[in-house]
What we know:
Low-confidence stretches: 9-29
Order of helices and strands: HEHEEHEHEEEEE
Strand order of the largest sheet: 8-7-6-5-9
Mean pLDDT: 83
Distance between the termini: 44 Å
Oligomer: single chain
Number of strands: 9
Amino acid sequence: MPGRTRRQYRKWALAHFFYDLVRRTPLNAPTSEIEERLAAGAPDVEVLLVEVVSGDTLRLFIDHPEGITFEHCAQVTALLSEYSATYSIEVSSPGEDRPLTKPQHFSRFLGHRAKLRLREARDGHKSLTGELVGASEQEVTIAAGEGVVSIPYELIDRSNLVPGD
Length: 165
């Protein structure tokens, strides 16, 4: 504990423990299974993001052309009832900071500000925030403080709109 009091160290350790506890993990394997199940049972509901939080919570962000209602969330929860043996299920609307997970999401929000968190540092940065200026099936182009940068989707760990735009 050099340079820290016992109290400062405990506070630091506790903060890092909780950070590790709530770290989000994208759920890759069952995502397509969940999307297929919802396509059959709730065809107008789009799955934006599926992730496991704290190891035992399955969190889904969903969208609907007319907005998300409580009934949509209840319907999705019911369709995923078999996951409730393993996970606590949270279903939510995307909100202002909606996740961007598919090429069509990036295309839909061209001209809006977004934050991209990368899997590994690129030119010394693991995070970029700027205006979405292009999106293809392979990459997104963002005008950030570093200039106009194209990032392949497979290098993006997480991305979302920046509220206020």
